[in-house]
Amino acid sequence: MKKIYFFCFISILLSFLGFYLIENMFTINPDVWSGNGNFGILIMLLFSPIFILSYFLTYKMSREISYNKLKRKISVVILTLALISCTLLILPIVNYTSELIIALGGTPSDPDSKIYRFGWFNQYTNSIYFNVYTFLLTHIIAVIIGILSVIRIKP
Is 61 within 8 Å of 5 (Cβ atoms)? Predict the structure, then answer.
């Protein structure tokens, strides 16, 4: 049992490292012109197995803890707090995205934008998808799914 906690901790740590690298090292600032393409895709591909493992182990750990150690009422309280956290995390994600779009001069369909004809997934917008808020949101969703899978089983 302690092995899964250790592996879960390491996978979450490595997953956070991947999010950090993509957000801070492979996202171009809006005030810089880039013509070299999106090198962040390489890091995303390299870290994808770690991201998936991290989500799976978070799900599995929350499921085991909820099934073995928590009563149903406590699981429902944790589930409620997790849902509230997800709702509250959406606010900074939307705010961050709006600020980045303004800094870039508009959307990909705006001719005055720095990302005109690049699409939404490019070297300037990596941080929309990979940042601390989305890291927390996706892991909380994994916890929610783990708890929900146990609440249905538990009498």
Answer: yes
